[in-house]
Amino acid sequence: MLILPLHRPLSRATFPLVTTVLILVNVLVFFGWQSGDEAAMARTQQHYLQSDLGRYEVPAYERYLLGKRRMDLLEQFNQVPASARPEYVASRTLTDIAFIAALRSGELFTDDADAEAWDVARSEYDAQIDRIFTLRHLLRSSEIDPWRMVSSAFLHGGIMHLLGNMLFLLALGLLVEGAIGSGRFLGVYLLGAVGASAASLMWRWGEAGGGLGASGAVAALMGAFCVVWGRQPVRLFYWVGVVFDYVRAPAIWLLPVWLGWEVWNLIASDHLEIGFDAHAGGIVSGAIMGALLVVTNHVRHDFIRDAEPETRTDDRWQRAQLHLGRMQLAEAERLLEELAREQPALFDVRLALYQVARNGQRGGAMAGRGAGLLAINTLDSEEVREQIEVLAELDAAALALDPADRIALARRWLDAGQLNAAEAALLPAAGNDPAEQAHLWFRLALGWRDRHAEDAHQRVLRVLTQRYPHQPEADKARFLLAELVGEEELEPAATVVG
After folding, report:
1. Domain extents in the chain
2. What number does CATH give the domain 313-430?
3. pLDDT, tens only, 16-71
4. Contact (Cβ atoms closer than 8 angstroms) between residue 94 and residue 210
5. pLDDT tens sequence across 187-217
6. How far apart are the first and last CA of the chain?
7. How do residues 72-125 score in pLDDT, each as one tens digit?
């Protein structure tokens, strides 16, 4: 499940300075200080396996588990093949604070000579461990270290981990930083990281493990956003399974949804090794801080109110609609053009301007405004449906879209998974680049196949072989059709549709 508030556009007026700095710091840490850690970790583990450490620490770990009566971990340890146990214990010593302390105390060794030999081998190994940036700063599950509770929020385990967190940080930072101010925003972020780390420590105390990532601090921004924006309706993008769309809802409604999702996964999917505990702790911490900011009146209500489109705070939109209903096109057009100049990206205003030109039978204006409407990049299903209808009207009125714009439109709709819309854009033969068009038709066919729409899949493949019989994609289409219909070979069609 993905829910992302996308309520305000990024502009000079809304530019979130601290959010941008935090993103740059996270990126710098990952591509700078963490960049060589994976290779260094592999070398360090290889050193461990080639040294005598395993000979001393494997039996010591077994004695440690027996002494602590950790029968669950002992059973897990006994299931590890003997040849793999040194590697297993090596990974445990990276974050198991209690085991490391017991080793250093000497209580796990039955012979003083073994303890001294271990200490020499371990010193060299520890020197290598200390040079690994990530291991020096990640949160360890059974250790209270204030620095690590913050520093771990600037570490990431991979590029996708980083990109996902930075996407949420940008979207939430744009809305939260503007609503509470840059200084307070930084405080919420850093204290949220501490709150998320504290929740993780409470949940996982006694375990051997570690945590890293900005998601706990970002979760605090989620909690703060819900409370600070409160009952203000906001525009949200949601993605559940294969269903995605935009919806408007009060921000506070997201608090039980986001928190409930994290708690549910913490209980039902804790084996996934994702910090649902830190996420839940971050959301709660952020919500508490957001409530304190609201109570102490440290919220910029003007910023929140200004997020509501101006077309809904005066009566020009309603008056324009009234004029349209009465076919008073000149009056409607004047009001709509005012709104379009102030907010050029509003879809409904652009659509109304197109309708004025269509109702007035002004072909030139209809073509230009229709092209402008089709150029708006939207994933809203209702807006895409409107765009498909406009495209069909332009085609019927012989006001064909520029071929390059039509190809770009088809490509955009394919990228967004709007297959019906993409096919509507591709149906009239357009442009002088058959290779590009054949490629798009083939992508469309594969899109239908991925949705298990076999009839549409075959239909599009046949259209491709008929329109572009000499393109490489046509050969691929004939091959796929032969497999589907059981024919040995399909000859290129003699005629080209359209």
Report:
1. 2-13+155-306, 37-137, 313-430, 433-498
2. 1.25.40
3. 999 999 999 999 999 999 999 999 999 998 999 888 888 888 999 988 888 888 88
4. yes
5. 999 999 999 999 999 998 878 788 999 999 9
6. 42
7. 888 888 898 988 999 999 888 888 888 888 888 888 888 888 888 888 888 889
Residue with tokens 């990640």: 138
Residue 356: both structure tokens together = 């004025």
- For the record, the structure tokens of 379 come out as 């994933």
User: Which two three-digit tokens encode residue 151?
Assistant: 């520093």
Residues in the chain: 498
Which two structure tokens, joined as six digits, stand for 373? 């409407």
